[in-house]
Amino acid sequence: MRSKDGKNNNMTDKFILKKDHLVSFLRRLKKEYHLVAPVKNIQGDTMFTLVDSVDEVEFDLVNQAVTSIKPFLFPQQETLFTYETSANGDYRFDSVCNSQPTVYFGVHSCDLSAVLYMDVTFSLTARDPYYLEKRKNAVLISVGCNEPSENCFCNAAKTGPFLEYGFDLQLTDLGNRFFVDVGRATGQEIVSKWQHFFAPAEEEDVKLQYQTYLEARGKFTRQVHMDQAIKRLKSGKVPESIWSELSLRCQDCSGCAYICPTCTCFSISDRKLSEHEGERLRSWDACTFSGFTRMAGDHNPVDHRTQAIRQRFLHKMLYDVQKHNRPSCIGCGRCVGICFGGVDIIRFIDLVTN
Amino acid sequence: MIHTINQNIYLPRPAIIKELIVENSQIKTFDLSFVDEEYNKTFTYAPGQFMMVSIPHCGEAPISFSSTPSRPGTLSLSVRKAGTLTNAMHELTEGAFIGLRGPYGTPFSMDALKGKNLLFVAGGIGLAPLRSVINYCMDNEKDFREITILYGSRLPSDLAFTADLDLWQKRPDTTCLLTVDQAEPGWNGHTGVVTTLFDKITVDPSSTVALVCGPPLMIRFVLAELSRMGIQDEDIITTLERHMKCGVGICRHCHMDNKLVCVDGPVFNRAELRNLEVAELLT
Asked: Would the CB atoms of A269 and B59 count as touching at under 8 Å?
């Protein structure tokens, strides 16, 4: 996409969107899609929100949203199907799936990388129709991070601060205008359909975009040695004591897994609605919970007192590397802020590498 | 888009309990067929695989086949009362409906067993998945050499699959030995844990494949004993039980280090289990 000197090789996929035109553009998009964007709520928190009216919300493309877009593609709880039994014992199932074409606007690079990872999770061993249906309907407009937050380490995770692929459109804030990279086909369609919003990027814009990207890379405050940690884990040189040491601090709250854009463990259960009706629900679950592996009869093959966080960290930092050649921690740093036991992934990486 | 069973892996198919066999106070065998007659004709599975069973208001649980695909038309699941779903299942009667999806999991490699002496070691409900293999072997007896079955239960009244045990004991080419942890009046057979039966058989470690299923503690001791007898890790095969929700490698409840028991197993040989954190093998 970009040559080493920052010169653009293909001007037809580089555009400029004036900031003054952003709201009108989103208004147009909203006529054809649901719009989910990072919006500042009355408490001052930035949350991905289903936008009702683009004129009545304050978009925040700079600060990291409290949660990623995971809950929109993989809801905290969703109905998979309803079921019915009848007096003669019959047992019928009726699938439920509500998904609308949706633009996810202002997604940071790390969170978009998480979606690419979830794409694999939900299609590798079996095709999960609930996730894939929502994903098929998803248009991803990402925004590169000019100012990484204090716990960010996407540079170490190689998921940001800007992306080379995976987005439909990628925006870069150039002050009074956005530089727009066109990625996937839907991005191209959007630019073509609403072309009056998009002017071809000039050589100057391309240079400034590249400079912005370079500057952003220099702004990370955390030094997280992810590659080194992976190397040590692969070599098997990590002492077993590390697991009990960290597990002791785990408070079994699963905040880390719920806030994590790539954690997708779930449970399935029935909710009885009447004697003969009910629904099957899928809900978020977490491998850090002691009940996660507990079987009927209370036998538990995992000793959670000493192993509570072992699967979580090894899955992200070793098993996924063995399987897909890359870790599934995307370096967003959210677990650093949420864990009151201090058992976050940076602490783990520091322990492994020191 | 995803309203048909073919497109939605989570949608069970209704099935009916054709026959119900009470194995003992804790175990029942459910002979099942799908309500969809056409589907019954095309449905296939392999020994060692499992189905996700739905019971109204109880969710789902993974249950191994106890029947063999070499006897088409029968699909049996043998279930021990252990938790909410299995207790509810035990309340059902013939003619009742349940939901099924599957088959799932990596089965026993029947081709790899061909030409071998087979040693089956089972405890309690652990005989269920092995019964599928044993009856498969009986139906294809030319493919296999001698079959030895060692089966243990807590009490004589806990022995399950007694009709099969009788048939197996009557076969001239098959050795089938039983043991109980604790005798009851009328029990003239062997008493002691299942490993005490090893003294009663001779095993050629180079031509024998051992298949093991039972409670975790039993698996640990039997696997150790089999290794001591000189059987290679690749020829010691077990099938593991784990909590599962999806059955297809996504929900991760059945994680075991870098493996998922639902797709990488439930059948594993001992070589695959070496270097893994396996509860059954921890000492």
From this structure: yes
